Amino acid sequence: MNDLFVARSQMGMSLAFHIIFAAIGVALPLMMCIAEWLWLKTGDDVYLELAKRWSKGAAILFAVGAVSGTVLSFELGLLWPAFMKWSGEIIGLPFALEGFAFFTEAIFLGIYLYGWKLVPKAAHLAAGVIVSLSGALSAFFVVLANGWMNTPTGFRVVDGKAVDIEPVKAMFNPAGLPEAAHMIIAAYAATAFLVAGIHAYMLLKDRSNIFHRRAIAIALVLGGAMAVLQPLSGDILAQMVAHMQPVKLAAMEAHYETRRGAPIIIGGIPDSEKAEVHYGIEIPYGLSLLSFHDPNAEVKGLKDFARENWPNVALVHYNFQAMVGCGILMMLVAAWGALLWRKKRSLPDSDMFLKALVLTSPLGFIALETGWMVTELGRQPWVVHNIIRTRDAVTPMPGLIVPFTTFTILYIFLMVIVIFLIRRQVVKSPSLKKVD
Q1: Gap between the Cα atoms of 410 and 394, Å rounded
Q2: Dihedral sign for Cα atoms in the order 204, 209, 211, 215
Q3: What Rg value do the Cα atoms of the chain yield, rounded?
Q4: Are 394 and 253 in contact (CB under 8 A)?
Q5: For 288-306, how does the pLDDT look when each residue is reduced to its tens digit (9 = 90+)?
Q6: Residue-wise pLDDT tens digits, 258-286
Q7: What contacts 359, CB < 8 A, 6 or more positions away?
Q8: Of 56, 139, 299, 330, which residue has the fewest beta carbons closer than 10 angstroms?
Q9: CB 109 within 8 A of CB 58
Q10: Rounded to whole angstroms, how far apart are CA atoms 189 and 330?
């Protein structure tokens, strides 16, 4: 295996693991704050128990996320020294701010975990809110840096070097804010649906347990709201991609020919040799409308770009379709739950709906993983769009298979620990027999 393949595989594997821990670390603190607020408002100790258990889960994921994040920082220097040397001065600011947010989160998470009887109730809830905000800000700053890789700004290139660097302008690049909003909403939606699915499974086994009913109610409200908001953030992001990364858009939709009134393709098998898509379902004018809000807008096809600058069209297209499909299914389940609640004015708890929650519980994280595949694979062959090619940024040294194997084993070990600890939290959940 060549160095480029191993380096990309290792970074991809590390990101695939870390994004799970990071997303739950962003969303679970918000859920524990909601539970504690409901406890303070109603005096119902079920919400207090939920807040305490979710806070323990947040602590577990925070610790593991810290380890996986540290490994990623190490890998950036080990695997991509040319990238870090060229861009470190430009995007160092968001990484520094992410570190500040991380330490703030750690400090106030400690206060939250151990201060239940040591600080006033309002101050304790405020500590949880700071944990939640710090987790979201941590993700926000990291995604701003990734946005810069897609739409690099805040510098000029003179003789192959970056000059006139403006770190703030680089941080608030055109892709940064849309990507960050899309990612944070996705983290809330994915985590909420996962939590709802876990508690739905437990409720199916113990139908009178009010603990799981309360948990599902909180998770469903948050997850449903985020599932509805996600297409709106996706629409803003798609328009940015259409204007700033047209080759990525063309790969996402397997769009080969430039045309006005371009259709959107559902499914299909891209054939880049023949520049066509087999077995796809076309929706007339759909791509032009979604990309530019104009059904007759011109959308550039892949043939307008040098073949050497094409990403892997099939992989990008399949991952994009999977991401959108998962998002649509989550929206439908959320809408179903809202309709049932409107009809009964109580938690939707039919066997069919609870089983649907269980089945859809992993879809948010599938969407997260495939969405990041679209973001990263769609930018190829560039590590910094139109500036540095990926092949020029990798470590030119043999033996990368050793750290790849080591880190893979480490992540599998971490995942086993997380599953074991979280399972203990779920299995040992209280059986509270109280009628709504």
Answers
A1: 22
A2: positive
A3: 23
A4: no
A5: 999 999 999 999 999 999 9
A6: 999 999 999 999 999 999 999 999 999 99
A7: 197
A8: 56
A9: yes
A10: 9
